[in-house]
Amino acid sequence: MSGDNQSQEQYGVLLYYKYSTIPDLNSLFTFYESNCSQLGLLGRVRLAPHGVNVTVGGKLSSLESHIDAVKSISLFEGTDFKLASSDYPLNGKVAHECGFTSLSIRIVKELVTFSSHPLLNPPDVSNAGRHLSAVEFHSILQSTGQVLDKENATDDKKLVLLDARNLYETRIGKFRTPSVETLDPEIRQFSDLPTWIDNNAEQLQGKHVLMYCTGGIRCEMASTYVRSKGAGFENVFQLYGGIQRYLEQFPDGGFFKGKNFVFDHRISVGSSDADIMGSCLLCSSSFDDYSSRCRCTHCRMLVLVCDTCRMEGAQYVCELCRKHGKSIGSSPVSEDSKMKVTSPQIELKNVSSESTVSPQMPWRNGIVCRRKLRILCLHGFRQNASSFKGRTASLAKKLKNIAEFVFIDAPHELPFIYQTSNVSSAIQNGPPPPSENCKKRFAWFVAPDFSGRRETNWKLADGPFDPHQYQQQTDGLDVSLAYLKTIFSQEGPFDGILGFSQGAAMAASVCAQWERLKGEIDFRFAILCSGFALHSAEFEHRSINCPSLHIFGGDLGNDRQVANQASKELAKAFEEGCSVIIEHDCGHIIPTRSPYIDEIKSFLQRFL
Questions:
Q1: 268: three-class secondary structure by DSSP
Q2: What is the pLDDT at residue 467?
């Protein structure tokens, strides 16, 4: 769309959610794919067995047509469609981060991730807190809770406000009333809220809890969780339609001060009150503009840095990381001469540990952190633990203060093969020397016609090297999965899995089955290098909710082994918000020079 057309077209943003049992997810997926594409809508559509969560943008007329189409589906009866006019997305970086440069439709387990542990079942929202309209919510705050229980005039339960949003949202706006306490959990992400509720239950028990969030969907989950705690937690109420509906009803802001952070290109929406609540991280001057997208170098949470303080390439540390003793340039360093615990000797001959495990490592600034991250490394096709250890030596060296690598051979042993320029030369010169001293090669997946017989002699290759051979290696997953269960049982625990090429495909398959593998293969993150996805039902229209780092060659990366598009498709299979992508120009390797190694370290720092 040209600039002239943009100014003439009325643009808008539409938000809505609906908790309801979806009888046919695939049909609903097809509906959204067809309708949104025809209307030119961009944004995010999340479908789950228990409902729908949608944030899309486009021409106002198209958004209105979309609403009409959705309303014709019976399960959306009573849905609150929040439609607002806005400027056309001009900041490409913000639009890209918010998902407004493409249409993303995914089937997920949860509409909003409520627990940091992806294996926990989400709360049943049928037990959510009572909905309060914006007017009711305002009246209660105005009367300090006296109208909450009209039938019980003697009810003297204390009223508290609970903000269910993240710290970077509450920095720039929240409800404030003189006589009502507002509880701000100061969490990085919504999945941290259950832990905060568990640890601060005494602040909620026996009280009237008024909960609010941006548009209402997070309160459905959070209020359910509070009420599930039993006696003393029954009186939970939530602002229906969230802050957005409240500001529509009270354009001057009412009891809400500052701006409402939104997850689209608008960044934030304010009232007619021009007061600024946020402040610059560095100089503390009034500031609430996130358009520069500055982030904490450790946890990647958005931070506020004013125009005067902001510098190209600068690093910032958020207030939460500061509380835990982190600073610019802080990184753990081991003191082997003072503390060194030898890793237990491993009985299996195919397991190789890169270094000893240090149970604690002092930081340079004196703050103690836990042991290094223990990462299981899965090699590529026709490699072994020893060769992969050699190929990752530079990476291991640069991460030695924060990570320990453990290398294993894959379970499928491959025959020795050799290639010649032509068949006649092979007949004339014969095969290579005896293979007694050659190290065996292994694979996680093999071709369907793989015999499994162990060959002791060299075998002439069937043809020239095929750079797309990984597309034919589709068998052997069950054997590899059973093998990894044994490794985790006998040699675990592991904090993460690092896979390269076919090893990344194996790691991705494990991530896709994380829910089913609970208790057998437990880990916290995956690093997938030059990865690709197997053609299986696990990857069909479903998002993988596992923290992941995807490292692969860009369009000009010259990776002749695994196509750039294959690695991109694998990354897309993971849920937004829990995956990080690093595209490099180094070919079929794991890059260890800046800025790539810095991004790898930044990802790992989250789990220390």
A1: strand
A2: 52
